[in-house]
Amino acid sequence: MTTVRVAAPARLHMGMLDASGAGTRRFGGLGVAVAAPAAVVEATGADAELTAEGPDAERALRVAERSRAGLGGRGARLRVLEAIPPHVGLGSGTKLALAVTAALAQLRGEAPDPPAMARMAGRGARSAVGLWTFALGGLVVEGGRRPGLDDPAPLLLRHAMPDAWRCVLAIPAAEPGLSGGAEEAAFAELRPDPERSARIAQIVLTALLPALVERDLGEFGGALTALQQLVGDAFAPIQGGTFHPRAAPLVDALLRLGAAGAGQSSWGPAVYGIVAGEAEGQDLARRLEPELGAGGKVAVVGFDNRGARVEEVA
Asked: Which of 117, 169, 220, 282 has its CA 20 to 30 A from that of 101?
C-alpha cells in the first residue's frame, strides 16, 4: 500500500507585530524555518481505523481524528519518525499537526491550500508563522487576524534566507514556555500599546527586511535584537522579564560571544543567535556550552528555504 512521508522543519518565532490588539487586526508576526529539528511523519492507507505510533503518537492521533473529517473519513496507520521537542518554542504542535494533515491529504490524492490545511488541523488560532513556514520555508511575515474570523492570518511576505547564514540554537534545561490554556490566559492580560507596535513595525519594514534583501548580516542582526527586546518587553509582566528566566542570560551570552543578533523563540526557553557561516556557528556553539548548564543542548543549524517535504516512499 502507498506510504507518504512528510518532513516539516521547526520554526523560530521572532515576534508579534501587535500582540495586544490595538488595531483592526491582532497578532501578526514573523519567523523563519530552520533545517533541524523536524517533525517527520509517515502515513499508510488503511480501511477504516486510525492508529499512531512513535514519539508524540497521541497528539498525532488526535490531529488525524480531527482532520480526516474533512478528508473523507478513511483510516490510516501513522508513524511519527521524528518529533520536535515540545513546549520549548519551536512550533512542535503546529508542525506535527500540519505534517499529519498533509500526509492524510496526500494519501487521498488531495492538496489543500495552506489555510484549508490549517483549519483541518485546528491550527493558526493566533499566529500563522508556523503555517507559512511549513508551506514555504524561509522567513515569513503574516498580517494578523480579524476579530471573529477563523481563517489563519494572511501571508504578507516570504523571503529566502542566505544559504551561508547559520543559527546557533540553544535549549536550556528549564520549565517549558506557556502553551494551551495558560497561553490563552496570558494573551488576555495584555493591554494595547500602539507606540510599541508602531516601533516594531518600523524595525521590521525599514531595517530587518531591507537588510535581509541586501544580505547585510550586521544590520539584520541589530534589527532582530532590537525587535526581540521590544516584543519581549510586551510580555515581561507575564513571563517575569523580557525573556524566559533561563533564556535571558543565554541571549546575553550569544551577543557577547559574537552573534550578529539573538533572541528567544516564542515563549522559550529556546534561544538562537545568527552568524555568518558554519565555522562561526561551531565556534560560537562551543563557547556557549559552558553557559548552558546541565541538560542543555546547543546545535548549529541552517535555515530551511523549502518548507515541508511531501513524498511517496512506497
From this structure: 169
pLDDT of residue 237: 86
Residue 39 carries which DSSP code? Answer: E
Beta pairing partners, 274: 167, 261
Residue pair 91/123 in contact by the 8 Å Cβ criterion: no
- Which whole number is the average pLDDT over 112-118? 93
pLDDT tens by residue, 138-169:
999 999 988 877 789 999 999 999 999 999 99
Flag whether the pTM goes above 0.90. Answer: yes
Taking the C-alpha atoms of residue 111 and residue 86, their distance in angstroms, rounded to an integer, is: 27
Q: Tell me the residue ranges of DSSP E strands in 269-314.
A: 271-275, 297-302, 309-312
Pairing of strands 309-312, 3-18: antiparallel
Q: What is the residue type of 308?
A: A
- pLDDT (mean) for 43-50: 88
